[in-house]
Write a structure and sequence with these properties.
The complex is a heterodimer of chains A (about 260) and B (about 400). Chain A has about 260 residues and is an all-alpha fold. Helices cover about 75% and strands about 0% of the residues of chain A. Chain A has one domain. Chain A is built from 11 helices and 2 strands. With about 400 residues, chain B is an alpha/beta fold. In chain B, α3 runs parallel beside α5. Classes of the chains: A mainly alpha (about 260), B alpha/beta (about 400).
Amino acid sequence: MVQPLSGQAIYVILLRELKRYWRAKARIIASVAQSLFFLATFGLGLGGFIGGFGGITYLSYLAPGIIGMGLLFGSVFSGVSVIFDRQFGFLKEMLVAPVSRTSIVLGKILGGAVTASIQGIILMTVAGLMGAFTPTPTLVMGAVAAVGVMLLITAGFVGLGVAIGSVLNDFHAFQLLATFVMWPLFILSGVFFPVDVAPFPVQVAILFDPLFYGVELLRWCLLGAGTPLLGPFGWLTALGVLVGFTAVMVGIGTYLFSRAQV
Amino acid sequence: MTAIVHASNLTKIFNGTVKAVDHVSFEVEKGEILGFLGPNGAGKTTTLNMLSTLLRSTSGAATVNGYDILKESDAVRRSIGFVFQDPTLDIELTGIENLDFHGRIYGLKRDVREQRIEEMLEVVQLTDRADDFVKTYSGGMKRRLEIARGLLHYPPVLFLDEPTLGLDPQTRRAIWEHIQRLNRDKNVTIILTTHYTEEADYLCNRILIIDFGKIVALDTPDKLKARLEGDVVSLTFKDPAAIAKTRPLLEKKDWIRRVDIVSGVNNQAAMSRMMQMMRRMPGAGGMGGMMPGLSPANAGGGGKMPKHVEQMLAQGMVGANGQHGHNGGPKCLNLLVDDGGHRIPEIVKLVDGTGTVLESVELHKPTLDDVFLSVTGRNIRDERGSFMETVRRRRIIRHARGQRVRG
């Protein structure tokens, strides 16, 4: 069923997500700090032990992956927040309005993508200040491209979150979600080690992790095209996979949200 | 007068078997206040959800403001305002922001939006709290904000689902005044649901009594009450067994028109009197509702409770309301009697003659409670909803009452 889209409705819902995000300062600080702990302990601590490889420091290798982690957690939770909207009743206010459910869910996905990407930009900046990225003129362009990649990654994962939130009916399943969906996605995204050092089954699993392609693209943007640490594919393949993943997830999220009972 | 809502044979069947609403047909005139009166689970909310396009009807048809609820759902939703039974505000936003969200999503232009928000805040007397976060509002303030929001886009029809559930008497009275003023000044047609007979009696031009998904009566409060000519004499016995002994004797008297068995506590007469007193109370309305924290923010107000405690509470409530359960059946009879005052001695003598002991005798004019009892055969105050329904209502009531104002 094709439903008419309302730009105004999408914008209003995006606005609400931004307001709520901006007000929950404690949550912003907590999630940024969590990522920074990873970056500091692994990047500087473990990195000092390992040294570097392939001509870059371990911190540089790690930083895009940690940004990816922030994006993943931020966006999935943002999508799953449709459960809270339902629990606290606000969903009804949206559903009784004269706009299509598709507009509502797209506003929700856009809002989640923008807020999670803001998180990613903060992390990228801090990682840059820690010396993770070599300051070159192309880094500026790379950073801009990275923001685009972030929006793409987060839109896909908010879609996943919305899909899960539309099917699940209570937040007791949160723990399960974190353990069995988000951690595997994170660990297998090639954040800590390059794909080719892993045993074969793990390599296969990594290739099925959409976040892996996102992190690859972020590395490509932030560390430069010459970095030898990329996986078996070029940036174009990674981008193609990511676009496909995001399109499918937004589609599934929209579909499941549209047919969910109030 | 023209009908603004028209329903014919509206039906909703859940899971293929449960008939929540069963071939309901009615019309609502432009400018009237129509009340759906019925116990929990009677089908009131389901009917409203179908009319507002939130729920698809299984069969039957309806139009709202001239638009078909199935084929023109967007136009229907533009024509209505809906104040839900459960809270539906975003408590992380301020009062103004909640209204602004609503105005934008309904496509109101900026200047119109700002002017309406100001106007509506004025109507529900929340202007001075508009910039505070909704999480700091009392239950009554939240309710009023929801009403303001439901009206922001000037809907010709406003649905109010249990508008005063769980509110204290002062706030309830204030909300009633708002509803009447909106109906009068803005010419909004109002359809509300309630299981409070006093509310239906006080507010509504016409009352639709619904039970087990079917309409059992539809008329003005006065005409409904006129169906029960005479007086109601309520007899409460010490022993439930007395019902069986005395009822046949009473039914034989030609001056007793009806004999109804009342399950639960026979307190409806007392309740009605209380409500009447409240209406006369000076200063009870209007500003009364403006005083947050006036309601007893009682147990359970302090945040989330463990689930088992909540369940125990709910069970406790079931126990308290289902009094007929543990004492072996109902103990009250309601008699509809011509010239009741003069007949009381005769009734008492008759009962005494059977050797049963009376606990109390009450006389009152028929209220809507009595009407409800006579058309459905049950007391409206009986909780007969499912266990989960009871838990849910308990939560709403606690939510409405329990919010203290911070600062």
